[in-house]
Amino acid sequence: MIPSIHKRGSETIGLIRYLYGPGTEEEHIDPHLVAAFDPLAPDPGRDPKATYEQLERLLDQPVNALPASKRPEKHVWHLSVRAAPEDPILSDEDWAAIARRMVAATGIAPDGDEQACRWAAVRHADDHIHIIATLVRDDGRRPRRHNEARRAQAECRRIEVDYGLRRVPPGDGTAAKRPTSAELHKAEREGREQPAREELRETVRRAVAGATSEEEFFARLAAAGLLIRKRVAPSGDLLGYKVALPDNRNGEKEPVFYAGSTLSPDLSLPRIRKRFSGDSDAADRRDRAPSDRASDPAPSGPATARRRAATAVWQAVLVVDDGEDAAVAARIAAAGEVLDALAKTSAAHTRTELREAAFVFERATRSHVKAERGHDRALRQAARELVYSGPALGRGEDGATTAMVIDMAFFLVTAAAHWHAKKGHAQQAAAAREAAKHLRAAYQTAANVPLGVLYQRGQHLSQSLRQRQAVHLRQAVPELADQVLAEPGWHALAATLADAESAGHDPAALLTEAAGRRELGTAGSISDVLVWRLRRMADLPADAGTRPSPPPSHDNVATDASVSSPRLGRGPRR
């Protein structure tokens, strides 16, 4: 259940007319009063004799009783309370009880206070109510509303428990604004996949992913087909921007524009500029590899970009595990850009899950921990290379390196979930865990064929060669060797170790390094994890040959035990 305290107003009658009216998109159905400070308050929705003006006069009476010089200019208080889409439809009596709890919790009308503010709760949809109040008590004093937003959130958490509703993680004020009822109804009526606000937020996020200048950012917005309106100071300096979908029009047939800051707090122009300034931050030069420099040439194709992205993502995993908070926050934010770039450029069979992963992970990219720009540079460069390398075909080396980078991204998103949970960031941790589920599904789709190739090759290794790889395994990770040898994915790992040995690497040393990078004991399939780490570290081709017949059916999941879920699909398990 989500409470939203809106900006204070100066005209009670204006808000009453809106609440009882048809709505901007005629989404208000059967508007009526469910509760009020006075049980006999007029209800213009159900009583044909009642008028808006009667309700206004009743609510405004304490305000009008004050001398004109002492009346607050902004005296209209407005709170909406919305249930989750999957919640059962509550009765008017339930909503009335919820309204009384909310005005008590926020200080508008504390329980037993006969001199409290006057208020009324109007319902015009199944899933929410609006509460209107005037901010002058009957005794002429102002209500005590200190921390009203936090108290409203806390009361909603208790209401969820009492009514058996969906438990919403407590917010911290960093979430993007949810679509309004009008926007949701409009999207449904017009057959849109998502409300215009969310489509614009997703498009703007993709435009900023890896961008290095305002010019590039706005060029991407234009290329995506958005209408752009810039706010320019008299000096010529750019102050802000708004965007609109060409086919999203209001009643006057004009485009509906949204400012970047209203789409998401981190999409305002000043916040976007901070990303650009961090691209050349000297602080980042201390902790990035030479291969991550912006001066490097653009990758030759999608597979190269994905391999480089996998390296950058894995380096970020190690920092998220043990880094300073500001550096971790920067890398988590940049991880969102990598996911956006992957969703934009991946093949059709993985695009849906990657798009969902990027969409939900957006909530995990913001918290009250201030990101120190510059630490995100390697990931932003990876996102840039993904965008400019073009779309992957999803086959051969492209498909295999897609599986490789998704594998690494899964661990980064999981590490982000752990970090947010330790910091008490409930919504962000939940978003990261949800993103991990979508990455698991995307990994399953991307990895089946390349791991199947390696599985078949491993089965056809000579017995002596396979035994030699088993010796390397026992030498490198003796505590995990028995588990790995029992996994179906062992055949793929044996083939990878043989490839590494043929390329001149010491398989045991490579295994020791790969296993030591991060704890493996809770991985769903250690062999799967090691395959991608080894092929990236040894610079082996991700695609090991042409497509064979699929391996025997068994569970497949790219997962860590810390994010539990059913195992999915076929092929060697991760």
Question: What does this entry look like structurally?
Answer:
The protein has helices at residues 12-20, 52-64, 92-105, 148-163, 181-190, 196-208, 214-223, 260-263, 269-278, 282-285, 302-322, 325-345, 348-361, 377-389, 396-423, 426-459, 463-476, 481-486, 490-502, 507-516, 526-537; strands at 2-5, 32-36, 76-82, 119-125, 128-134, 227-232, 238-244, 258-259. The two termini are 37 Å apart. Among the domains are: 2-163, 2-Layer Sandwich (BirA Bifunctional Protein, domain 2), CATH 3.30.930; 176-278, no CATH class; 447-537, no CATH class. The model is unreliable at 281-297 and 546-574 (pLDDT under 50). The protein is elongated. α13 (348-361) runs antiparallel to α16 (426-459) and α17 (463-476) packs across α19 (490-502). The protein has 21 helices and 8 strands. The protein is 50% helix and 8% strand. The strands form 2 sheets. A 5-stranded antiparallel beta sheet has the order 1-3-5-4-2, with helices on both faces. Strands 6-7-8 form a 3-stranded antiparallel beta sheet. By secondary structure, it is of the alpha+beta class.
